Amino acid sequence: MQANELKALLTRTHDVAFEFAHVEVEIRQHRSERGIYCPSNLIRGTVVKNGQPWVERRVISACGDQEYLIDRKSGVLMEIDPENIPSQRYKIVSNRFYAIKQDGKRFDNPYPHSEVVNRNGKKYIHLITSRKAIYASWGEYELAMAHRDKQEEESNARRDRIYTTLATIMGIKREELNTSEFKNMWGILGGTTNRVDYDYVKGDWMPEAERHIVDIIQIPVDQAEKILNMLTDEQKSQL
């Protein structure tokens, strides 16, 4: 986030959700008309100091390779509980903090702009990151992730109902739909998703709370007749 945004956030809380990256890693927050995209897998941390000094090492000449030291004051000092970081990504060795490679081994050198501090018998990671790595307060982020998880669960449940229906119509086991032979059966049967928002019986638009999504499957008439013959009179009256 921008400097004024972080300043406003810190008036309410220092407990934030941020992308675990040191201050020299370029962070791009995708902004659009809908605001900033909220990524998954952010880390919980506490802002210790906004405006933390740090030293950048940079080659400033296009004609040489001499490294120069540039003093900065734009960092944000974060404190992170190691328990909030996935164990497969980082490791603490002898009070040094290391990133883990894809092969599971740690890098030879400690992670830049980081150190391990001991307080009351417990180790914490101090990391200098950039303002752009901070996305929201941790409380807001938890709510956003809970909402996203709920939407995914509802989507998976609806997809499972569709596949169970397909399996019943086709007379096969539910597990068989996961095979390559039936992979595109939803499209073959003309599957569509429609939003129901008009009551044709009453001849009027439905209240917002009653509008819903339905999934439609096209099946042959003879197959539909077979299914109807399997239903009781009470079940048929509900169609």
Topology at a glance:
Blueprint: H1 3-10, E1 15-18, E2 31-32, E3 35-36, E4 43-59, E5 67-80, E6 90-93, E7 96-99, E8 114-119, E9 122-129, E10 134-137, H2 138-170, H3 185-188, E11 192-196, E12 198-199, E13 204-205, E14 212-216, H4 221-230, H5 233-237
Overall pLDDT confidence: 84
Shape, principal axes of CA atoms:
elongated
- N-to-C SSE string, H for helix and E for strand: HEEEEEEEEEEHHEEEEHH
Main sheet: strand order: 8-9-5-4-1-10
Q: What is the percentage of strand-forming residues?
A: 25-35%
Major sheet: 6 strands, antiparallel
Gyration radius over CA? 28 Å
- Number of domain modules: 2
Number of helices: 5
Q: How many DSSP-defined strands?
A: 14
**Percent helix:** 25-40%
- Assign the structural class, choosing from mainly alpha, mainly beta, alpha/beta, alpha+beta, or little secondary structure: alpha+beta
Structure, explained:
There is one protein chain. The protein is of the alpha+beta class and 239 residues long. It folds into two domains: 3-140, no CATH class; 155-237, no CATH class. It is 25% helix and 33% strand. The chain contains five helices and 14 strands. It has helices at 3-10, 138-170, 185-188, 221-230, 233-237; strands spanning 15-18, 31-32, 35-36, 43-59, 67-80, 90-93, 96-99, 114-119, 122-129, 134-137, 192-196, 198-199, 204-205, 212-216. It has a six-stranded antiparallel β-sheet. The chain has a two-stranded antiparallel ribbon with strand order 2-3. Strands 6-7 form a two-stranded antiparallel ribbon. A hairpin with a 2-residue loop joins strand 2 (31-32) and strand 3.
